[in-house]
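User: I'm curious whether this sequence folds into something compact or stays loose and floppy. Could you predict its structure so I can see for myself?
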Amino acid sequence: MATDVIVPALGESITEGTLAQWLKKPGDAVAADEPIASLETDKVTVDVPAPVAGTLTETLVNEGDTIEVGAIIARIGEGGAPQSSDKEAAAASTNPAGPAETPALKGDEHAPEAAKSETAAEAASAPAEDDHIVTLSPAVRRAVLEHHLDPSKIKGTGRDGRLTKDDVLAAAKGLDAPGSPAISSSPAQAGAQAEAKLPTPPAQQPSAPGPRPAPGSRKEERVKMSRLRQTVATRLKEAQNTAAILTTFNDVDMSAVIDARARYKDLFEKKHGIRLGFMGFFVKAVALAAKDVPSVNASIEGDEIVYHDYLDVSVAVSAPKGLVVPVVRDAHAMSFAEIEKSIAAFGKKAKEGTLTAEEMKGGTFTISNGGVFGSLLSTPIINPPQSAVLGMHRIEEQPVVKDGQIVARPMMYLALSYDHRLIDGREAVTFLVRVKEAIEDPTRLLIDL
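Assistant: Here's the prediction. I'll summarize afterward.
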């Protein structure tokens, strides 16, 4: 009796997802709760587990299909191997062509010579036993195509030996090193091998080379947007269409924070087991400034303004499939160590793709650090229904005037984008000045000034 595999609940407000990759194929044995498919939602990528142990008998949807919560995507039969008779299994193990064409045993003098010749020809043309099926996720497939690699030559480090994007990029970097993976002879060959669930083609006799692309020829590649990228695009455009977004800027001297980190980083790491970063200072500074300007931490619902007496900070984190925004909850009540530990944990989960929808739900204010990528200045877009976002940028030595003298100081530009429907210019500037004052004199964070 077959058991249906049903798409599980994916979190509040998430009703559908895209089947990104089948992790198992029909005929594979699966254990209870073992992931058999990867499902991409608006916010996260989740695995669909097998409800029972048995054999995956059939898949009902294709990779790239949109499926709703509760839909049946596969069926699992009883037993841990494909259902076939012992006779068929024995025949299949002896004859690669199938049980219906069992070849004569070696030494059987009564077998017709034609049958022997046919069997030898089939054996010669059959793929070798070590040929395997290559199943790739959309991101990995794109990386393989971009670098013209043969995925069957790359060792996978993901779950069950699957290829990851990092595996492909590492292989691409090592192309000139001894023992590096082979490059496909052409983009067309790489594309054919990169298609999901295609076997590695068997060796063929050399043939005349085909025509080469003309010098200067131009190519195009069309890749379907991931569900996460579609959601990001929709939400950002919605923010522009709905909110009256304005950005105000200021610069901040990072000398005091840099000195504090240099002085206490070893003791801090020894005591708390985490490095002291810049984000803890900025989260604390935002919490302090929000007390003076509460509208920056508020939101609009219908014709009402909702003020929050807590600070849930959405921290923009780069993930392999795009930007994700996990939430550090009750950040106003956290210590520096608690803030740094939370952000480090979210960064690790984002890289591994294990963030949950619940961890990205809510948030009353966002901090985005484009400085880690080298950004000098930007105008971040607010994350609805929030009303403001703080943009951090790279630290750069710049000449500034101190006590009548021109000196070099490590400066950072800060940007506050805000919803002008709720926040006036005076309030936005005041908030950013409060953040600047707290960063330039961290003592304010300790004595609540």
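Summary: Residues 255-272 form the longest helix (18 residues). The radius of gyration is 29 Å.
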